[in-house]
Amino acid sequence: MVIRHADPDDAAGCLAIYSPFVETSAVSFEDSTPPVEQFRQRILRSSRSHAFLVAQDAGQIAGFAYAGPHRERTAYRWAAEVSVYLGERHRGQGLGRALYENLFSLLEQQGYRTLLAAIALPNPASVALHRALGFTEVGVFKEIGWKLGAWHDVLWLARRLGPAEEPVGVRPRSPGPPVRLAAPVAL
Ligand SMILES: CC(C)(COP(=O)(O)OP(=O)(O)OC[C@H]1O[C@@H](n2cnc3c(N)ncnc32)[C@H](O)[C@@H]1OP(=O)(O)O)[C@@H](O)C(=O)NCCC(=O)NCCS
To answer: Using one digit for the tens of pLDDT, what is the confidence trace for 129-185?
Structure first.
């Protein structure tokens, strides 16, 4: 198993993991599986601004984790949203943690200071993963999304990145260009 940066050609492999959550659950709030070309563009967009990582096992995509912007107004530029998806047989073995730890390290080096995650409830595995990695609850949007015949709540979680203490009133450096892994990470 290795963790490496995604290539647009990984889109189909990522979609094989992602599509069941779109089609049969409220884990994703998309109503239909995006076309491969659209997912290629997502990989490119995330890679150009943040990072998009995949875990590859014997030539197959086992999971992926990526980051994107939170909101557009400039004062939000230190905040990034993150997400992670694993194939069924790769869950519960520490791979979600490994993908996220590598992703967060890159984002921290890049200069991001806040990570945000939105989780449609219930999703005990995702809540446990985020809490294990230091996220704390921001709040719950009640019945914010309609999917598969019902309203769904979304829990937002956040965690800080970067120095624990910083001088008051000094603006941190803005996030720079994306940071790359020095080499694929073997697990
Ligand atoms: C959520 C997900 C990425 C977690 O990844 P994972 O590799 O299974 O999780 P890990 O093995 O790295 O475990 C991380 C922590 O979460 C806990 N955890 C994992 N699955 C759990 C479960 N089903 N119930 C309770 N706790 C769970 C682990 O005990 C571990 O805690 P620890 O580090 O304190 O021991 C994975 O289950 C998944 O892909 N789920 C489907 C897609 C999804 O929901 N993505 C998130 C969208 S918001």
So the answer is: 999 999 999 999 999 999 999 999 999 999 999 988 888 999 999 999 999 999 999
> What is the model's pTM?
0.97
CA of 23 to the centre of ligand 1 (A): 21
Domains and CATH numbers, the chain: 2-175 (3.40.630.30)
For 21-45, how does the pLDDT look when each residue is reduced to its tens digit (9 = 90+)? Answer: 999 999 999 999 999 999 999 999 9
Q: Which residue's CA lies nearest to atom 48 of ligand 1?
A: 119
Q: What is the DSSP string of 71-132?
A: -SSGGGTTEEEEEEEE-GGGTTSSHHHHHHHHHHHHHHHHT--EEEEEEESS-HHHHHHHHH
